[in-house]
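In this supplementary section we document a worked example of the pipeline. Step one takes a protein sequence of length 99 as its only input; no multiple sequence alignment statistics are reported here. Step two produces a three-dimensional model, which step three serialises into structure tokens for compact storage. The input and output of this example are shown verbatim.
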Amino acid sequence: MENFNNLTPAEIERLTWLSEECSKVVQIIDKILQHGYESKNFDDELTNRELLEFELSYILAAKRIMSVVNNDLNVKKIDMHMVEKLRNIGKFLHHQDLK
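The serialised model returned by step three reads:
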């Protein structure tokens, strides 16, 4: 029986991995907002900043696997959208000097 979403088990696995990594980034951002970049969990050697760096690297790893390795995504389109976002985000941010 075919999945209703026409995704292969491998595609589902990659999307699940990406979703998990994105949720970890959101959790760490919440910790940073509550306690700051340099705060640590009582049982963790890494600061919140270091944890954010690790988790963002995992998202980039997922992007690479989904675009370069498996062709789920078009890396050129991702980069094009990123450039467009960088071009337009300044009007929505109040405390960033993007000149």
